[in-house]
Amino acid sequence: ALANLPNFNGRVGLNGNSYRGWHVMAGLIDPHPAVKAAVPSASVSEGFIGDDFFHHGAFALAQSLRFFTAHMDFYPFEAFDDNPIANEYQGLDIYDFYLNAGSIEDLRPLFPASSPMTDTVLKNDTFSDYWASREVAPHLRQKPRVPVLHVNNWFDVEDQYGTLLFYQEMKAHDDSDLIRIVSGPWNHGGWRFGTGDHHGPFHYGTNTASYFREEILMPFLRHHLKDGPDPALPTATMFDCGLNKWRTYDQWPPAAAVRLPLYLGQDGTIRFAPPEEAEAFNGYIADPANPVPFIPRPNKDGWNDDYKLIDQSFTQSRDDVLVYSTGPLKEDITLCGPALARLFASTEGTDTDWVVKLIDVYPDDPDENEPHPTPGFHRLVLSDIFRAKFRDSYADPKPTEPGVVEQYDIPLLEQNYTFRKGHELVIHVQSSWFPLFDRNPNTFTHIPSASADDFRAVENKIYTSNTFPSHVELTVLPQG
Q: β-strands 406-419, 333-347: how paired?
C-alpha cells in the first residue's frame, strides 16, 4: 500500500486522539519499519482502572451510558421519541432522571433493541479478562523503536490515565531518548482547535494551543518525517495552570521533586506534620438516596466534560462532604508529579465509595499579580473516586467488614500546578459524585442490577489519628 502512495518518502507518522490514540499505541507495540514518529493524545488505556468507562471500579454513568447507547450500540430512528437517553435528556435534570430510575438495569427499556456493547460493559464490572485483554501497557515494556510525543490534557476528564501510564511505561525502557511528553491546559484533545488562550473562566495570557501546534508538534513531525531541523525538545514540557507558564524538565517527575504529605485533622485543618491524637476521626452519613452532585443543579446539560472548571464551593456546606483546609498558604506549593490519597476509613456498609478532591481556593482580595483574578473561586486541581470492594484487587472484589478501619490508596493522577502564597489548599472527602459516577448502594452486590433494598444509608468515617493518619501525598518542587 505504501509503495503506491503518490509523493511518499518512505516515512509514516502516527497521530490520533482518544480511541485513535489507543490505535497509535497499539501500532507502537511492534511498529512497521516505515513508522518514524508517533503522537498519541488522550490515549485510552483499557477502560476500567482509570479512564473512560470506570475509575477504580466506579462506573462513569453520565458519560458512558450515553456514549454506549447512542454511539456504539445505536438507536433506530423510531426509538428517539420520548427517550431521554437517546434524545439528550430532553431538558431533564439528569441528577433526578438517574436517581429516580433506580439501578442501571431499570433503564433497560430505554436502551437500543440490540445493545451488545452496553450489555458487555455492565456485565464486566470487575477487571475481568475482557478488560485485561485490552491492556496495551504490558506490551510497552521493551526498548522503544520510534520517537514518541505523548500529549496529555490537564482538563481531560476522559483519558488522562492512559496517557500518563503509557508515557511512564515507555520512558522506563527508553535508553535512546526517544520519548517526550507535553501537558497543556486543555480538555479532551482541546489543543487541536483554536488558540488555547483561555478555558472557561481562566485566561492564560498566551495562546497555549497555537504554541503547542506551531512550536512543538509540527517541528517534531517535520524533523522525523521530512528531515527538518531538530527542535531539541525537552523530555517534559508542562503548563503550570496556577502560574500561567510553560515549564520544561529533563525528566518527569523532575529529579528534584520531593514528597509532601498533607495530613487531615479532626478539626478540619490540613497539617504538614503527622497528627498527635491517639483517637480521632470525622464521620458522615453516606446516603445513596441523596448523593453529592458533580455539578450544580439543575443539570440539564447531561454529561459536562468541563466540570473541572466549575467552582467547587457548591458542595462544601453539605453534611456528607468533609472539608479540610491549610488556611492561607505562607509560601507557594508547586505540584510536579503524581498525587496519592491514603485514607484510613471505615464504613457500616459492605461496600462504599471514596471521593477525594484537591482544590485551590482563591483569596477574596487577589493581589495585582494574580494570574486568574477570580475572587473566592474554588478551583478543582486533582480528584478521583475509588470503590471500596476493590481495595485489594480489581479482579477479585471483596465486601468490607462493617466498622473495621482499612487503608485505601487512591491515585489522583498527576499535575504541574502552583498553589500560590495566600491561596488555601483544600481537600474534600465524600462518598458519591453523581451522576458522574453511579451510586454505590453501600451493599456488596452487582451494582448495575442492584435492587431497591440494596440501597441504604450508612455511616462512613475518615480517621485522623497517629495510628491512622489519613493524608494526601503530593509530589512537589522544593521552594527556594
A: antiparallel
